[in-house]
Amino acid sequence: MNRTARDRGRDRDEEGRARSARPRDGLGRPLPYGAEGVPRQPEGVVRTPDETLREAQRLLDAGMPFHAHEVFEDAWKSGPGSERDLWQGLAQLAVGLTHAARGNTAGGARLLRRGAARLAGGPGSAAAAAYGIDAVGLVAWARELADRAGEGGAAETAAEGAVEGADTAGVTRPAAAVDSVAVDRVAVERVPVGPVVVDAAAEAPRLRPDRP
Q: How far apart are CA 115 and CA 23, in angstroms?
């Protein structure tokens, strides 16, 4: 495959996949090159459901929902189709919390409600029960936070669903990644970021109340 000059100039990970090398803060916002950021989650890691939930909970408790969503995304991509709604719903909850903490309260509220809808019934709810996930509690948490966040209005502009089929506000991934719910290319670099109206660590949900 021939690569264009633009392709050759792109940042890539150790396996040659296009991935921005810019450092990011705990909410996934890009920082200037050379700044000290928070290490990104490696992509494509295959974990057991228990490992996924433990790692995601650790990141949520640390106030890093952006990084937690990357863990859920790996589970979604590597898991069976019957669990798609579960992992996608959890990823959307993490992305919604990310946006709300960034100040994009309107976008955060939309994503929280979408994630809640995936967990409220059907395959998502059934898969959650199999892993001891408190789907009922997560749905209540997401809807309550969405109501609070939605009242604050949008302080940050994010493009809505740039790729057809994407469920995450502000995604600008290539067509090959249409199933991704990542927000690592949200256009926060080109718009003013509003004040943080939600404390991500304080609002972190418990995925399984009886386990770490």
A: 27
pTM (2 d.p.): 0.72
Q: Are the C-beta atoms of residues 74 and 47 closer than 8 Å to each other?
A: yes
Q: 29-37 long-range CB contacts below 8 Å, 24 or more apart? A: 29/102, 29/188, 29/193, 30/188, 30/189
Find the angle CA(201)-CA(41)-CA(34) to the nearest 5 degrees.
90
CA 182 to chain centre: 5
**Per-residue pLDDT tens over the stretch 56-98:** 999 999 999 999 999 999 999 999 999 999 999 999 999 999 9
Q: What is the residue type of 165?
A: G
Q: Which of 155, 166, 163, 149 is nearest to 188 (CA)?
A: 155
Encoded tokens for 48: 């057991």
Taking phi first (over 0 means left), then psi (-120 to 50 degrees means alpha), and beta for anything else, what does residue 32 get?
A: beta
